[in-house]
Write a structure and sequence with these properties.
Blueprint: E1 2-3, E2 10-21, E3 37-45, E4 51-53, H1 59-62, H2 75-92, E5 99-103, H3 112-115, E6 120-124, H4 128-136, E7 141-142, H5 148-158, E8 161-167, H6 176-186, E9 187-198, H7 200-206, E10 218-219, H8 222-230, E11 234-242, E12 248-255, H9 263-275, H10 280-306, E13 311-314, H11 318-327, E14 337-338, E15 356-357, H12 359-364, E16 369-372, H13 378-384, H14 386-390, E17 394-397, E18 403-405
Parallel strand pairs: 5-6, 5-8, 6-7, 8-9, 13-14, 13-16, 14-15, 16-17
Antiparallel strand pairs: 1-2, 2-3, 3-4, 4-10, 9-12, 11-12, 17-18
Bound molecules: zinc ion (ZN).
Zinc ion (ZN) binds next to loops.
């Protein structure tokens, strides 16, 4: 029996993706022999309805000193965080000399919007090399893991915070209760926690199972979060859907009774009821949809190989690791993955060891098909790659369903 990380009741496993490497573990050939694997399994708690990983890989293996993900490399994400910060400034920073804290602040992509406005801020970023980049840009950052003890230290040094932010980080934290207890210490009585993460409703509706990988311990819904926060005297006061990372939700959390509950919260509760997020059969359906997606994608890739077509992967994303390893995509099916991130080029994809090559290699000799691992940026990418399609190239996407786009 597996115990829920949130409520300690029974978690019902509904899928295993099998033996899986670390999603962002792009590696050199000399590291193949020491590559770390774990079983990627997901379950649904029958009581609090939190969807969660059943085996937590060692976090030191994920967020190590050479962590390769720098948020600011994406212009689109930089724009997203500028809008996010603008909303926070407009709605929640009314006090004199406000103080903003962000957990998992990365290279400062969000906090720089506060730093530039002269607002007191503090980033908490456990990856030391990423934190150094933020500090170099004039963003106040400490490189530690957040818990109650750190919250007390921050309060004694800077005072309580008006806003505590998190973008794509809360769902990474298996010890959620300890973080929320810390947030409770850190926030002023009228303070708010605002965070966004991939939304379970989108995963169910789009069969976007590539959201499921080692870094994401939880797959949040409004109903599961309401259960969690209630235990800490907090409540969800607003929800704002976000069109990033293939479907995310921004949640605004406050101490109970401090803010009115927005109509959007009531509407989302109703929608989640209709989606059946509380029913075990919903997750059986999800598993069947994932299995069907895998079968269709592999049939397509094998047909292409038989007919002598060249297929190349586009964007060496963390998300691609689950798809590649679960489906069994090998270098004989996908020749290489094109990616513009210098740190990934010359390395190999985790698990399947598909070479990651520079974008020049893709554009110098277009393949017949490009398998779009960055499907969540499909519109932006396809607009940029008109020449590829003009030369007869076709896209393969697998979310919301497997299809070829000419
Ligand atoms: Zn539970």
């Amino acid at each position: 029996m597996i115990h829920c990380l949130v409520c300690n009741n029974t978690v019902e496993p509904f899928i295993s993706f099998g033996r899986m490497p670390i999603a962002n573990g792009f590696l050199g050939s000399e590291q193949f022999a020491q590559e770390y694997f774990f079983e990627l399994r997901v379950g649904h708690c029958l009581v609090c309805h939190m969807v969660q990983l059943l085996d937590q890989p060692d976090r030191e293996k994920m967020f190590h000193a050479n962590y390769a993900f720098f948020s600011s490399t994406s212009t689109r994400m930089a724009e997203h965080f500028a809008r996010f910060a603008a909303q926070v400034k407009r709605d929640y920073l009314g006090s004199a000399d406000p103080f903003v804290v962000e957990i998992g602040s990365n290279d400062g992509i969000m906090l720089r919007n506060f730093a530039q406005a002269g607002i007191r801020h503090l980033g908490i970023e456990p990856s030391a090399n990423v934190a150094q980049v933020a500090i170099g840009r004039g963003i106040q950052t400490i490189s530690e893991f957040f818990d109650q003890e750190l919250a007390r230290k921050i309060v004694s040094k800077y005072g309580q915070a008006d806003v505590f932010l998190g973008a794509n980080v809360m769902c990474h934290i298996p010890y959620l209760h300890s973080v929320i207890a810390g947030i409770n210490i850190l926030l002023k009585p009228e303070g708010v926690l605002i965070f966004e993460d991939p939304y379970l409703g989108d995963i169910l509706e789009k069969t976007s199972y590539d959201q499921i990988y080692d870094e994401h311990a939880f797959y949040f819904s409004l109903s599961s979060l309401e259960y969690v926060f209630k235990q800490h005297g907090l409540e969800v006061v607003d929800v704002i859907p976000q069109n990033v990372h293939g479907g995310s939700m921004r949640y605004v959390i406050a101490k109970r009774g401090k803010y009115p509950i927005a109509d959007a919260v009531i509407a989302l509760r109703e929608k989640e009821n209709q989606l059946g997020l509380h029913k075990p059969e919903t997750y059986v359906n999800l598993r069947q949809n994932i299995e069907r997606s895998r079968a269709e994608l592999m049939t397509l890739l094998r047909q292409m190989k038989q007919s002598g077509k060249r297929v190349v992967g586009y964007a060496a994303t963390s998300k691609s690791t689950t798809v590649i390893n679960y489906c069994g995509i090998t270098p004989d099916l996908v020749e290489f993955i094109s990616d513009t991130t210098p740190i990934k080029q010359g390395k190999y994809s985790p698990g399947a060891h598909i070479p990651v090559c520079s974008y020049d290699k893709f554009s110098a000799r277009y393949p017949d098909y490009a398998l779009l691992f960055g499907w969540n940026h499909a519109e932006e990418i396809m607009a940029k790659e008109r020449a590829f399609q003009a030369a007869g190239g076709k896209w393969i996407v697998y979310v919301p369903r497997v299809q070829v786009i000419e």
